[in-house]
Specification:
The complex is a heterotrimer. Chain A is mainly α. Helices cover about 70% and strands about 0% of the residues of chain A. The longest helix of chain A has 28 residues, at about 225-250. The two termini of chain B are about 15 Å apart. Chain B is mainly alpha-helical. By secondary structure, chain C is of the alpha/beta class. Chain C is about 45% helix and about 15% strand. In chain C, the strands form 4 sheets. In chain C, strands 6, 7, 8, 9, 10, 13, 14 and 15 form an 8-stranded mixed sheet that branches. Chain C has a 3-stranded parallel sheet with strand order 3-4-5, with helices on both faces. In chain C, strands 1-2 form a two-stranded parallel sheet. The N and C termini of chain C lie far apart (about 70 Å). The chains are: A mainly alpha, B mainly alpha, C alpha/beta. At the A-B interface, helix 6, helix 9, helix 11 and helix 13 of A face helix 5, helix 10 and helix 12 of B.
Chain lengths: ~350, ~325, ~450
Amino acid sequence: MIYRETGQFKTTYASDQQLFPILQDRVFVIAFLVFAFGVMPFIASEYMFRAILVPFLILSLAALGLNILVGYCGQVSLGTGGFMAVGAYAAYNFAVRVPDLNLLVVFILAGACATLVGVLFGVPSLRIKGFYLAVATLAAQFFIDWLFARVKWFTNDSSSGSVSAPPLAMFGHPIESPAQKYLFVLAIVVVFALIARNLTRGAVGRAWMATRDMDVAAEVIGIRPLTAKLSAFAVSSFFVGVSGALWAFVYLGSWEPLAFDVNRSFQLLFMVIIGGLGSILGSFLGAAFIVILPLALNQLPTKLGIGLSTAMISHIELMVFGSLIVFFLIVEPRGLARLWAIAKEKLRLWPFPH
Amino acid sequence: MTATARNLTFAFFALLVAGAVSPMVIGSARFPQWLEVALGGLLTGVLYSLVALGLVLIFKASGVFNFAQGAMVLFAALTLVRLMEKMPLAVALAATLAIMFALAWLIERLVLRPLVNQEGIVLFMATLGVANFLDGFGQAVWGSQIYTLNVGMPKEPKIILQGTFEGGVLVDMEDLVAAGIAAALVAALMLFFQKTATGRALRAVADDHQAAQSVGIPLNRMWVIVWSVAGLVALVAGVVWGSKLGVQFSLSQVALKALPVVMLGGFTSIPGAIVGGLIIGLGEKISEVYLGPAFGGGIENWFAYVLALVFLLFRPEGLFGEKIIDRV
Amino acid sequence: MKHATRMKAAAFALAAAGLLGAAMDAAAQAKEIFVPVLVYRTGAYAPNGVPWADGFVDYLKLVNARDGGVNGIKIAYEECETGYATDRGVECYERLKSKKPVVFNPLSTGISYALIDKVPHDHIVLITAGYGRADSVDGADFKYVFPMLGTYWDAADMLVQHVKKKGSLKGKKIALVYHDSPYGKEPIPVLEALAKSEGFELLKLPVTHPGVEQKATWLQIRQQRPDYVFLWGWGVMNSTAIKEAIAVSYPRLQIYGVWWSAAEPDVLPAEMAAKGYNGLALGHSAEKDNPIHKDMIKYLYDKGQGTAAKKEEVGSVLYNRGMLSAMLTIESIRAAQGKYGKRVVTGEEVQWGAEHLNLDAARLKALGVEGMMQPVKTSCMDHAGVHKARIHTWDGSQWSYTSDWYESNSKLLRPMIKASADKYAAEKKFEARDCSKAM
């Protein structure tokens, strides 16, 4: 009853094309942002910030990037972990070699490096597709892992190959406390989500989706597959690269290539598919699901006072996690975002569904 | 495929072969070493083929890219090794096989049937879920220690051709026996697919689901059968790898090793899985031993993928893949 | 609708139980010292992680059961599964941090690296007994990090000392087969320095995680025929290495593992064929008959309260190492109590305790671990406390010591530690402590 757009008339094209055409959506999003920026920093515990919110936001950003590639452009990639690593190591090198560079500039440059590498490894997508492409992007994953483990220049000759980020600061203000880190990451993620949302609505996004839905038809109506696919790889890798830099700088602090191994790629693909292919919201929902579920499963038995051994808890965690993935895929193969959309649709008609 | 692309492919592989064979030509003293590496690579390749075979079987019949194959290998090996503590080998083998068949039936019932007609990527993700489940389940039931699986494989290597070359050529007997087993399995599968009614039905399903169904082939049962066969392949792979490495969690990682193989050989070709495995195994070992030192080592992991990738760029349908005219 | 109501009720009950549990945790905290236990009991490294974790937890249990805690203060502990993954380790750290822990033992070089940056802010001590970052021996730069018992740089130096005893290393070849991670790469700078001064050639052969693919590595070893192979592996990589060594007929006598590559799970899969394989023993090997083990059996296992699945695991190499790690943790707490009073001490106070640890021979005997480790004396300058180890060899069924004690060459290592630690401080932009002024 509350969620209904009756009476909201669009009198200009601009208002018809705005980001959230329905008033209630707008209110909800704004309220949510106010909550995230204004209320959350005061109520969340340190554990909440450091172990849940920050990793969730950073991985959402990576999932967002991957969703642009897989969900909007239809190019399956298993090299996301590698592109994150490129972002992380590029950021490290810029930060260490060019001291006093603004942190945002560092992250943007890191994203740019990831873009270059992403486009390079995106070239095979012009010849091969589907699972073959997915496996081909694994080449990127393994090559990049190896590169950062082997070439000492990238790790500033660190004897162990592990590098650690310099202290974070923006315009002279240190970013140290968990709440500061959270706000910093949140601000970046919101900006990127906005960019993604607008890109996917625009001409570029339509070209991606056309390529995804039927590449031959897309070509016929004048969309160049080369530009469409490579631009998707570029934008996606930029997002992923920035998230890799954030993951390394803000969450881990100190890392090695193993932090971006192939399991990370699979984890991100999980997020995108569970969350919903081709949906900005889905990237966030998927990330929340994949980040929080294992932690919740892991802590639940202890919280409930069930005396299970750590090993058994971990095994059960794996089993329940696997089963839930299958369960959600069966219930709604188009992801959590689709469930959300159905709920909204129902809400519109409620309480008179007929 | 254009003539240039074909020529380029040939040129690439000619270069590769030249690089691989060069130690043989340059100095005869290094030839036995090269032979050892090549042999080691080929034997490892056979083991890769074994896992790839499981992948291809399932992909052919049900269009599922089964990432759980690695987890199935681990699960089969764990089950076998723990059952062997309580019963003789033959009984344990039979029991494990029965469990793998039950597993195949369960997967078909609980995972595949509800997901029928979904996109490939969704099915792929579902098998990742299955892999997670099996990893947890196997360890919860059977434990996560390292177990020694002793099925009587020879452990000590043999030195052959000592008369021909100084120092002889070392052959890993365990790998040789493993390769023999793999070859026997492949031959048996070939017979099964070519000669039996069920095999023919499976091939029909692989060619065209709807056509197969319309002539009365029960799709569901075929899927159970093919997953059972994949379970059998997993068991054999588990025995071979488990006896080599000990039965432990990392066995599930061998699935990753099979990916470049299927990429090279094509997802739908059994001979492709075998030849692809051999090429990848050979390429990996030769590159690691002869190119590795120049790069600081550890290159075999990505080299296999790059090898397959470069090949695919020139020949997108893979080694023996079906030629589909699809140029975009 | 009824179904939905029931679900809601269940969810409510769950949440309430969670809250209750949290409240109870908080109440229990006040009178106990909390020691978190990061473990990996599942995944690729579980075979090695499990005995370590069992030993660690058993010691904490023993302190509570036998002594009623440390000076009357009970030890509370909680396990957290990391799976040897850095991000899970960091999550565990954040999760357990709320319980006011005093000491973390991460049991992973990767996690140690990630936590080293975090512990100074949170005032929590990080004990990395036998692993971790080699330059953290320097307490001036690494105030809260204690690589007790020895680092990988010590290990590399001592292994070279051992093989040098068999004849000059000039013109010899040593191959380092290492886990391609910070753990495996740690010894490289020292080995490179030694290669220069001793005149041997160092072959570096990385093995990718998890280490099941080593055929090419060992074929290279067969071709190059190095005089010695140093094995720097963990988990399944060790047993695979030994099996591949057998498959290329490389003599096991010439293989030397670091202390993490020389335990039962590493040699058992290869069984008799591993005979002659050597490893560095971090003070202890498999020892089952010390007073401490008898206490374990008496106070825990006879009452059915042991952590290990089988009683036989008590006293195995990694079990002992976990046990000693827990002992160092407890002794650091005890030392802190000695200065600050017999109460629940804080992380800062335990830092003082860990820095002024003095376990002499008499104390070790009283603890029931005589012969399992050398006396430890830490200071601001030396957070390791001891730099000694000896070699033990697998005879097909058990480990036995085959060498005297070695002590790492501080003339070589000290400057390297200093340089590396200073570089860390410069990168992190902080001032080192002045050790002469540290109390």
